[in-house]
Amino acid sequence: MNAKVIENERTAMSQHVTRQPDGLGKRIGRKGEISGIGKVAPGGAKLFRERLPQIQAEAAYWETRVGTVHDFRVTLIDNDTRILFTIVYDGDFKPYVEDILREAAPWLDQIFLGVWDGFRGTQDRNSVEELLSFAFEADVFFVRNPDVTVRDVAKMKRLSGAVSELLDAAS
């Protein structure tokens, strides 16, 4: 199916979407995406919900250590029989996977170990590869600022705060 895009005022802002050069996922500018769906292990939904307050409370700590994650979501779906994750991150797929394993492995184990059926933990490289085998790229992917990284956002936030302080002091 080679449907042609009809050029109009709505397509004038179209983004150039490519694929990750080294793995699954779409890419727009400096941002990539990936999603995955797996089977929930017996008792996994209960375990996930018990861990959820701690997982959520530690999210900023772990994702700040990784330093390239814009959005990360994990949720149980289909009456707690499957688990879905979606991620938007900076850069290429393989370096992102290495960063997350190096910087946030304990948190990933807290999220997925005993919850995702068959996942044996981040220390087991084959298990990580099996988990990633359930990953897929989105059909539709859009990002507002494709060339703005997580570091750029943090820098702009600091700069905005400094300018606000300066303007407040001047008034």
Helix percentage range: 40-55%
Order of helices and strands: EEEHEEHHEH
Number of DSSP helices?
A: 4
* Mean of all residue-level pLDDT scores: 91
> Structural class given helices, strands, pairing?
alpha+beta
Explained architecture:
With 171 residues, the protein is an alpha+beta fold. The chain has one domain (17-170): Alpha-Beta Plaits (2-Layer Sandwich). The chain has 4 helices and 6 strands, in the order βββαββααβα. Strands 1, 2, 3, 4, 5 and 6 form a 6-stranded antiparallel beta sheet that branches. The longest helix is centred in the first third of the chain and has 23 residues, at 44-66. The mean pLDDT is 91.
